[in-house]
Every structure is written in structure tokens, then in C-alpha cells.
Amino acid sequence: MSKIWKTGLYIHVPWCRRRCPYCDFFFEVGETSSNYVDALCLELEHRIQEHRIQSFDTIYFGGGTPSLLPTIDLKRLFKQSELNPKLSEESVIEANPEDLSERWICDIRDLGFHRISVGVQSFDDALLKKLGRLHRGQDAFNKLQRLKKYTGIGIDLIIGTPIETTKRLRNDLDHILRLMPQTVSLYMLTIEEETHFDKLVQLGKMPPTNDIKQLDDYHQAVSTLKEAGYIQTEVSNFRRPDYQTAHNEIYWAGGQYLGLGPGAHSLLISNESGLRAHQKADIQAYLKEPTSPLIVDETLDSQSLFDDFLAFGLRNLEHGVDIISLEQITGAQVRQTQIQVLERYVDSGHLTRFDNNIRVTPLGIDILDRIQGDLLFD
User: Fold this and answer.
1) Which residues, other chains included, contact 251 with Cβ-Cβ below 8 Å and sequence gap of 6+?
2) Looking at domain 301-378, which CATH architecture does it have?
3) Phi and psi of 160, rounded to 5°?
4) Which of 118, 164, 170, 278: disulfide with 265, CB 3.0–4.6 Å?
């Protein structure tokens, strides 16, 4: 495999204290397994050999709730696998506010993580209660103030909920600007099928999300963050000018990533072709046989790889997509129908073009899904 492709490592920690009413991710409620690190190490060694991965540029722990994994297990994972967060371009671990004890924070800092991404979702207690979160707004704010003295921080915020008001959103954004975290992620609430919120909507006990209101909330949040100096790197993600988000760049700027753990997804590239695959979402099966074959979702030839990186690379609002570079690294060429789609959206003001670089304009963000679909399926 050529090292031309940057490689990210995603490690899934599939446990939570409770199930939030909006969440449809794969995890189990309860304590982590003491055997989980051993399974992760076995799978990592196997996948590295199987896919001839030379090294990892970034490391990301997601979930579930990675902060439930004891730090002694994290230390053991890094020792056995010889992974080193300090030497990666970016290493990130997700956490919930209630897990941010002084001891845990110090351990994470000493392990070399660059950023802790905290699932705050809101600083408003009434909204937090509706969202099923265990923490309270002021407590989360106080912990984040202490946390930023030790390491970089990221804050996740849910916007566009049916019960959210303009006043609540402004309050949440005010709290974020008082903290000035390295990164901010905005997630518009989606009512996923078979979640508790979905059941409430079906029963008429909760209003559905309103597309117009969600878009208004999103525009307000984007405007506020940009005015404060944040750079919008992706549709939902923002960074301070003094911080680089290397892991997310791999997803949107063209790279491969290996997902470890049950339910984790991977995109693996070799010889100008790609493989999208995932692990079975079954914790007990994973603990018994972590090196079982990945479930293949899609195989990508060079043209399909080009198409994917072109369409989804437009989410990279900071750098856009360089057509010539993409042709060189995939060995494929932009199709005539794609050129026509790009020209159409440039003319309408939804895209901009500078030489070979294509970027989405603020106007284009609102219809990015449509643009991507046209590039993939026209």
C-alpha cells in the first residue's frame, strides 16, 4: 500500500451508562469488559498485517462513551499495541462531562492525547433533561474551565430541537464563547427510527423537528462562531485558528481509516481501489473472535473512489477538492457529467472554482446533500 494515503485509526468503545432518547448508535448499557483491550490489540495486529498498514497518522476514540474505559486499560492498550498518541498528528478521546474527574483528566493528559471531545449537547438544564443527559449545565461548564488548563477541548452541541428556543441557543453559544474550546461540533437533532424520541413523535407526545427552524438555528450558530474567529472546517465542525483537526481531515480530504471494535466502520485503500467494511455489531461475538473477517459493504474501483472523494470531499469547507490531485492519487478522471454538475452549481453560486479547486459556498451548504447526489448519480 502506498503511504500517499493518510491513515486514521478509530477505536469504538461500545458502552454507555444509559441510552439517550435520540441515539441510534451501537452500544450496550453497562460496565466495560476487562477483556476488551486484549480483543482490540488482537484485531489491530491482524488488520495491520491483513491490509499492510504502515502507520497511523491520527487516533480517535469514539463511542458509546470512551471515558468509561478505565485509564489503566488505555495504558495497557498503548503498551501492547505500541501506539503513541503523543506522536500522532492528532489524538482525540470522547468523554461525557460527568466523567471529567481530576484523576481521569491527568491520566489522559499524561497519555498524550491532544484533545478531549466532550458531549455537552447543551448548558441548559431543562433541555439536558429532555435529551436524557446525566450532567447539569453549570457543572459541565465548571469542569470544562478546569479541563482546558490541561489539554485541548472540543464541545459537541445539539441544535434544532423541537423544544429549543432562540434564547436557549444564544445561552449555549455564549457559554461556548466564554470557554473558547479548540473545536466545536454542531449537530442538528435527527429523529432516528426506533429511538425513544421517534416513539414520542409517533404518539403525538413530541413535535417533529422543523426543517426551517433547524436551518435558522444552524445559520445563527455558524454566524456566531465565525464572528468569534472560528474557522468552519466542515458542515458541522469548527476550529480555532491555532488548532488543526487532522483526524476529521482524513474523512473529508481523502484518506483511509481503520475502525476497531464491534460496529466500527473502515475505508481501506490499496492499489487505487477501496473497501468499505465494518465489524459485526455484537460485543460478545467480538470478544470471542476479534479477528473475524470484516463485513464488506462496498468495493470501490478507482473511478468509484474518485467519485466518493469528489462528492464527500466537498464537505471539507476549508480546503475544498482539488480535481487534478484527486485524479493523480486515484488514477481515475473526472467524468463529463460531473463537470457539467460542477459548472451548473458554480453558475448558480452554490460552488466556487479557483483553477482546479472546487469549494462549497455558504449558499451551497444548505443543499450540499443534493449536490453530492448529483455528482454521484447523474
Assistant:
1) 8, 257, 312
2) Orthogonal Bundle (1.10)
3) 75, 25
4) 278
What sign does the dihedral 361-367-372-377 (CA atoms) show?
negative
Nearest CA among 114, 106, 156 for reference residue 135: 156
Quote the distance between the C-alpha of residue 344 and its chain's center.
30
Domain 7-249 has CATH 3.20.20.70: yes
CATH 1.10.10.920-classified regions of the chain:
301-378
For residue 57, the one-letter residue type is D
Give the C-alpha separation, 127 to 155, whole Å: 16
Q: What is the pLDDT of residues 225-279, one digit of tens each?
A: 999 999 999 999 999 999 999 999 999 888 999 999 999 999 999 877 899 999 9
Q: Compute how many other C-beta atoms are within 10 angstroms of the C-beta atom of residue 167.
A: 9
Return residue ranges of the chain for CATH 3.20.20.70: 7-249
- Cα 375 to chain centroid, rounded: 23
Which strand ranges, in their side-by-side order, compose the sheet holding 115-121? 231-232, 237-239, 183-188, 152-159, 115-121, 90-95, 58-63, 7-13, 256-260, 265-270, 273-278, 295-300
Give pTM, 2 decimals: 0.95
